[in-house]
Amino acid sequence: MCRSIKTLRPPALPAEATEEDVRAAALQYVRKVSGFRAPAAHNREAFDRAVDAVAAATARLLGDLEVRGGRAPRT
Fold first, then answer.
1. By the 8 A CB rule, do 73 and 63 touch?
2. Of 12, 27, 31, 15, whose CA–CA distance to 74 is shortest?
3. The whole model's pTM is what?
4. Is residue 45 in some structural domain?
5. How many domains does the chain have?
6. What is the chain's pLDDT, residue by residue, as a tens digit (75 residues)?
């Protein structure tokens, strides 16, 4: 796992993860999996789509998780 990706769910973060936090984690994941820090122009669209998809999946996951201690899932 990429060491740059941090845990985004409470209580690891004092507050809810921001859209920026989610996007940064998605970018780090796609960079790790693809092996590209910055893709070539001909791969940019695929790279950006992957970041968007991972960010959306991450946001859904965080919204669906129930954290012990009473935080209800986001809708």
1. yes
2. 15
3. 0.80
4. yes
5. 1
6. 456 678 888 777 778 889 999 999 999 999 999 999 999 999 999 999 999 999 999 999 999 988 776 554 554
CA distance 38 to 60: 26
Give me the residue label for tokens 């669906």.
64
Please, are residues 62 and 22 in contact by the beta-carbon 8 Å criterion? yes
Separation between Cα atoms, residue 7 and residue 45, nearest integer Å: 27
Beta strands in the chain (DSSP E): none
Structure tokens at 16: 């809810």
Phi and psi for 23 in degrees, rounded to 5?
Answer: -65, -40
Domain membership of residue 70 (yes or no) is no
